[in-house]
Amino acid sequence: MMQANRGKRVHIIATGGTIAGVGEAGFTGGYQPGVLSIGRLVEGLPTVEQVADVTGEQFASLNSDDITQAHWLAIVNRIQALWESGRYDGFVITHGTDTLEESAYFFHLTVKCPAPVVLTGAMRPATATSADGPLNLLQSIALAASDQARGHGVLVAFNEGIYSARDVRKGNSFRTHAITGGDMGTLGIMRDLSPVFYHRSLKKHTLDTEFDVRGMERLPDVAVASFHVDARSEIVDYLAGTHQALVIEGAGDGQVSRSWEERMRYWAAKGLPIVRATRVPDGSVYRGAGMPDDEMGTVAAGTLSPEKARVLLMLALTRTKDPGQIQAMFDRY
Ligand code: ASP
Fold this sequence. Notes:
By secondary structure, the chain is an alpha/beta fold. The chain has helices at 38-43, 69-84, 100-110, 133-144, 234-242, 258-269, 293-296, 306-316, 323-332, and strands spanning 9-16, 53-62, 90-94, 117-120, 155-158, 161-164, 169-170, 179-180, 188-191, 194-197, 222-226, 245-250, 274-278, 299-300. Strands 2-1-3-4-5-6-9-10 form an 8-stranded mixed β-sheet. The longest helix has 16 residues, at 69-84.
């Protein structure tokens, strides 16, 4: 029996998602997410007392497509207050998988707490045959209670893998191995209740970022413009005219048509920060590759997906509008 973390205090912030979903008994589809309380989910874990002293709160009961930046800001403030109370050794956030990667990266860049913060969710509702939520939740609690999880920033525990919030994404729309680190892989694995780490990200996070959103009520408005064959360049104009900055989800190396490039040059010259990312799930948009960033005044997203590039750009804009400084942040985080 695994006893190592007994006495550690882990607090769960529950936001809903499929992990709390309820549907027809035995089936994996056609369910309602975010129904069961965190109390009910923890009650369903017979070995939880061997792992940690667990408390929890029902922060929200949402499908994660309804998560907003207001939830992000409130959760960061909540974790900060809980950490400063001195009563907890680690935190778990239950979250729907659809937008988990965006929330995780936001917390990774903004939470100022050295204790582990672990996100998890599930692909099958709690009422399905072989629901994946119970093991994901139990292993997240074990990870949040562990000393090994410290120093990695925000983590995601899912399907027996441990992922950095920076690199994690949803890679399958319904199977239980839905969460992946893509090219960057896993940081480690969960074997029952024991985390085993093999890798560490060199990108800065949590205590080592310049982003402090405590007390902030609103983040800058950033849109993602998706390029595709025949995409009209008025899309760029519309989004540029209604937002403070843009992420361009280009093709390949982050490339777009000549008509889109012309509009990007126009808006960048007017001082609108523009980051080039790619719709290709793996690989990297290198500075100057595919398009002349120096000449255009644009920023290259590197390995960050368009959605994660948006998160970093929102935070970058709380510090600067200068494309050179924003590029340095994309290189650092
Ligand atoms: N639609 C759900 C959500 O993101 C899917 C899930 O939790 O896996 O809340």
